[in-house]
Each structure stands twice: as structure tokens, then as C-alpha cells.
Write a structure and sequence with these properties.
By secondary structure, the protein is α/β, with parallel strands linked by helices. The protein is built from nine helices and 14 strands. It is globular.
Length: 257
Amino acid sequence: MTLIVDVFQARQDNYGYLAHDTQTGRTAAIDAPEALAIKTALLHRGWTLSDIFITHHHKDHVEGIAELKRDFGVTVTGPRAEADKIEGLDVLVGPGEPLALGKTAFEIIATPGHTLGHIAYFDRAGLHLFTGDALFSLGCGRMFEGTPEPMWEGLKRLRALPDDTLIYCGHEYTAANARYALAVDPDNLDLKLRAGQVNTLRQAGRFTVPSRLGEEKRANPFLRADDPGIAAAMGLRGAEPFEVFAALRKGKDEFKG
């Protein structure tokens, strides 16, 4: 396998990731939520940071850039559409453009909505997908800047990837996402199974990522806004999928469970 991914906690509920190309030794931090957490993970692995790949401009994903550039001289790659909002970018990328980490090739996928220029990074050979705050385990990001239709289209692009794809998302929100998903889709057996697994993992203090895309397609309501059953659950039979998605997102924003 060309790419190894190290998963660790950063800040309060962020996930940090190191993507290590075994053929060349190049190592990228996926986002830079916290410099100390990234340095600790590097020390534990014995890797040297060469790159940072940024998904979007929010502070809890970029705060460590300056310190890591100072200490490692890294190359920072990020979304061209948010270049004016992220200090320290060296390489700008957009949807469909190639990106390499040593011998590992990444595809850039547009996932607007959480922020307008949000992107995801996909290693097709190894089936690693870094989604930032666009797609979470059993959920999706809040729609801070975008509108429902483009965000739904971005999630469909992610949904179209192979079922064995491993999803590495930006935050540990899975237990809360599961509670909302069960409120929307209480008879979904795949969801019930996943929710039980999540509870077991969290009680043991373990991470709930990566999740597999195939499981998300069956259990995550935000990837099923075009499912008539989800539309019916939202009281929107016959509505456009993006309208169902908008109702799902609004419901999650207001959910108190």
C-alpha cells in the first residue's frame, strides 16, 4: 500500500490526519487544526512533515499553518476559490485538477456548502477520502456559506465513489449525528447497527473514523435525500432531492436530541 493514514485528536473534537506516502516518505497533514497535535503525531510515527492539504478556510482547520511552515518549511496546498481567506497557501488547486504526494495521486472534488470553496481530497488507488467538514460519519457539515442545491450536488459526487472508500472527516460528531439520523429514519436496520457500533466505540474512548462509504450510503440520511422514504419522513413526498436535503440540514440544526 502506498499511503498510510495516521488518525489523532486535535483541539476539542477535531480529527487530525497524517497521510504518508511510503514510496517517497513525503507526509501531508490534512488540514492544520493544531500544530502541537500534528507535531506529536509526527514524532510518534517518526515522519517528517512535507506538505499540508487544506480543505477550507475555517480557523479550526488552518490555525496551525504558520507554525508548521516555520518549523518544517512545508508546501501548503489549498482551494483556489478560498485563496483570499487562507494565509500561507503555496499551491492552489480546484476541482478535477491533479495533486501528488510523492507517488500518491489525489483527485480534488468540489464540495461547496459548508464554505463556498470547500474541497475534498481523494486517493483513488488506496480509497482514502478526506472530506473536511463537507461529509461526516452519519452526517454532513452545516451550510454556513452555500445553498442546498450545490451542497447536495457535492455530496452526490462523494456518494458516487466506490463503496470501499474510507472516509476521514473533520470532526468527531458521529454519536450526535446518529441520534438525529435515528429520529429521521428509525426503522433503518443498517443505521441501528452503525449507531450501536458508534456507542460501543465512544464508550471505549475510541474513534469512529474512518467509516466506509458503502455504510454511509445505507445509513447516512444526508446521502439519501433522493430516497422516497427519506422524503416522506420529512413530509416532502415528490419534492426535489435538494429540497429534502435542505429540510434535513435545517432539522439537524434545530435538533435537540
